[in-house]
Amino acid sequence: MQSANMLLKKIIRSSVLPFAAQHGMKKDLFPLSRTLSLSLCLKQDNSCKPSEKIDLDAWKKVMKSGLQEVVSETVSDRKALSALAAAREMLEMWRLAGRSVPENISEEQLKTFMECPSKSSQKKYLKYLYLKEIYKKNDQKKMDEKRERRLETQERASETDESKKTSFICLWANCMDRAYSWRVAQSMIFGQPLVFDMSYEKDMSVREVANTVRQIVLSEGCNRRSVDPFHIHFCNLKDDSLYHKEFIKHYRQAWGKLLITVTDQCYTEVFPKDKLIYLTADSPKVMKTFDHDKIYIVGSMVDKSIKTGVSLARAKRLGLETAALPLDKYLLWNAGAKNLTLDQMMHILLTLKDTGDWKKALEFVPKRKYCGFVNKPVHELKKTLNLINMLKLGKRQEEVRKQFVKNYSKKLTEK
């Protein structure tokens, strides 16, 4: 048995240890050689006889094959780790160079990146991870901002909690609510009607209907707080329609308590036709003054694509009078469509009803759409605008000069 152990040690020293030392595995093989020698000794004690001989060549082949398998596995694992490290360093260099590369990438994502068949697919995958990381950061930032705002409001509420709990403020709020409700109740009997046409559900998407209802809710709140509110009518509003569902979603239990008139009939069946005026931006007739004896109709439609002529065609089919706000007469229009939101229309109509001043009413038009109010007569502004359009079209300079002289001479004769 001693001779067998000596032979096993010689085999390990001569074949296995140099190979392990070459690949940096010498420390790991010492316990392996010890266990092999012990297992061999035990096996010889139990089964081998002293007369039997050991086939050292066969044993050497078995040891070499097993060792090569172990070494190949460890070498492949190390190569994979080194390839992942190299890919990670390359991505870090790309990120520092300004490319769209995520800051944090997991091993699974890195393996997926390395398995991409082409460079374009690798770039697309990196861009996908980069955008995903940006969206995640933005969502986290929004959540943090919301949390900060909530904490600030809680702190302010805690600071002013004592003042809010005073009986005077609670009494004042209740009195104001009762006063607003009393005004709206009076308008339902004596006030001027204002109609919202709810027949445009088929011309809008679900999102546009939701935006329309949101603007109508703002309009109703504005009308409720005014000094002389309108009597609001929701005409052509059918049960279980998109309008109705959105209204219930906004008002919930208060929908049945609103001081407005809701009907599924058309406004031509409720009011006489000679008193109805349909307000639409496509109308050729311009509204000059606010008539307190007329009943104005506002189309409950919000369209992102700006479908021109829809409300005008409906008014013509019903044989109604139409009118448009005099935006060109009082405003120097800058850019964008001349369609206004429903809450802006409500502010304008309430101001006209109370004051009759167009400048005060048109202050509710978004200031991004106009440069300012008109100070000159309209015909002079049209001439200057025509000259500007001629210059934009690129006509000859002489024709522009002649036109300018002609207009200027007429202006002098008129003076």
From TrEMBL:
InterPro entries: MT_TRM10-typ (IPR028564), MT_TRM10-typ_sf (IPR038459), Trm10_C_MTase_dom (IPR025812), tRNA_m1G_MeTrfase_euk (IPR007356)
Signal peptide feature range: none
Coiled coil found in the keyword field: yes
GO annotation, biological process: methylation; mitochondrial tRNA 5'-end processing; positive regulation of mitochondrial translation
MF-aspect GO terms: tRNA (adenine(9)-N1)-methyltransferase activity; tRNA (guanosine(9)-N1)-methyltransferase activity; tRNA binding
Record keywords: Coiled coil, Methyltransferase, Mitochondrion, S-adenosyl-L-methionine, Transferase, Transit peptide, tRNA processing
Chief localization: mitochondrion
Gene Ontology CC terms: mitochondrion; nucleoplasm
EC number in record: 2.1.1.218, 2.1.1.221
Catalytic reactions of this protein: adenosine(9) in tRNA + S-adenosyl-L-methionine = N(1)-methyladenosine(9) in tRNA + S-adenosyl-L-homocysteine + H(+); an adenosine in mRNA + S-adenosyl-L-methionine = an N(1)-methyladenosine in mRNA + S-adenosyl-L-homocysteine + H(+); guanosine(9) in tRNA + S-adenosyl-L-methionine = N(1)-methylguanosine(9) in tRNA + S-adenosyl-L-homocysteine + H(+)
Record-linked CDD domains: Trm10_MRRP1 (cd18102)
Subcellular location: Mitochondrion
Residue span, SAM-dependent MTase TRM10-type domain: 180-372
PANTHER family per the UniProt record, alphabetical: TRNA (GUANINE-9-) METHYLTRANSFERASE, TRNA METHYLTRANSFERASE 10 HOMOLOG C
Name of the protein this chain belongs to: tRNA methyltransferase 10 homolog C
